[in-house]
Write the structure tokens for this entry.
Amino acid sequence: MVIRQFLRWALRGALLFFAAFAVTWPFFGPDRNMRGIWMTQGYGYILDIGRFQIDLYQHSDAHCLIEGKVPAHSVMMSVLAGYRFEASQTELVARVEGAVNPIRADRIDALPPLCAEGTTPIPGSSFANYHAFWTIFDQHYPFFALHNVDWNDRQAQLAPSDQETLTNDALWDRMVQSIEGLDDGHTYIYRPDAGIGYSPANDVPWEEDLPAFRDLQIARGLTDIPNTGLSFTILDGNIGYVLLRHMETKSNILNTSTGVANSGFGQIAEALQGTNAIILDNRFNPGGSDDISMAYAAFFADDTERLAFSKRTRMSGGYSEPTEIILRRNTDTEIHLDQPVYLLNSEFTASAAEIFTMAIQDLPNVTILGEPTAGHLSDILEMRLPNGWIVGLSHQIYLDGHNVGYEGLGVPPDQAIAMPTDALRNGMDPMIDDLLAELRP
């Protein structure tokens, strides 16, 4: 998904900035080490970097599609797309705004035959589309065993023959059946032509009540932090309260996503630094970006650097080397929130909200209350089929600082408390009220 975002931003600004940057190309174009053909470690992409242009291909063992052509100008890449490239003779490293880990690519001698021969025909046959769909999952999805799904058997049962022509609806039904049973909120297929999508994830039973449950917290008189999903107040007993709606920010060319996150949570930290305790309400948080989670977590970090988590990316034939993400104190501020912190989670707490949980769970002043989280931790790999349909899937394994994985299981609380759904529907929240009663002097 981060590569598709790169394309959207780069193409959006290419025409606008072309004239301004044209005269600077000799200074900011790719150097000799960077030019060439690169295959990403996982992610399913190939970059053909020339002197003036980058050709981006989406690739699996079953298909190859040209994703776009963007100007090969380092300043444009950084300013418009949030990408910075570094290269040696054998490895290309892309550092992406919004991601905590770099994307690495290996130099290859030539485009794979599927790409060199003119890419996969569009929209393609039923067989070609299903084969690309199945192969993308086969090469990148790590969790078939976790969900007791035999992927080879799904192919044997559902793949059309190379002579079989299915209607779009029939092909869609085959793909839906193929991923049934993968209880994974980061796995889906989407048909832009029909405006329909499907994810095999099991819904949270109270998900339809989510707006009302959030409104109940807003009624406490919260102050919103612009361009973030943060709201806060100070409750009776000098107890700080922070509602984390999501882990996203609205950034622009003048300010990065982490810059907005640091500024936003900095306002909260300044307001709550003198409180006796802090409640972090993470129960209604579906996630967002890991870099935002780590920016928020840094306000609670102490002087000890801790391994927050590591992540490996699934690739054909194995996994990438793990990337370790370290929790460090935010050194841009003197404010450090070291009072008792109570993090409230539920089975709806997902993705980057779970990353936030892993990042702070080992801090000595943090207690996690509630339910195990959703167990949907991986980033999403999003790829396009020849017919234009979109496939999304988990493609990374996250392990916490103790080398424990929570995919499909959820990060457990220190103290289990069931989500009080009946009370919440009646306008009460005993989870918070009981905690406040315990914390008040």
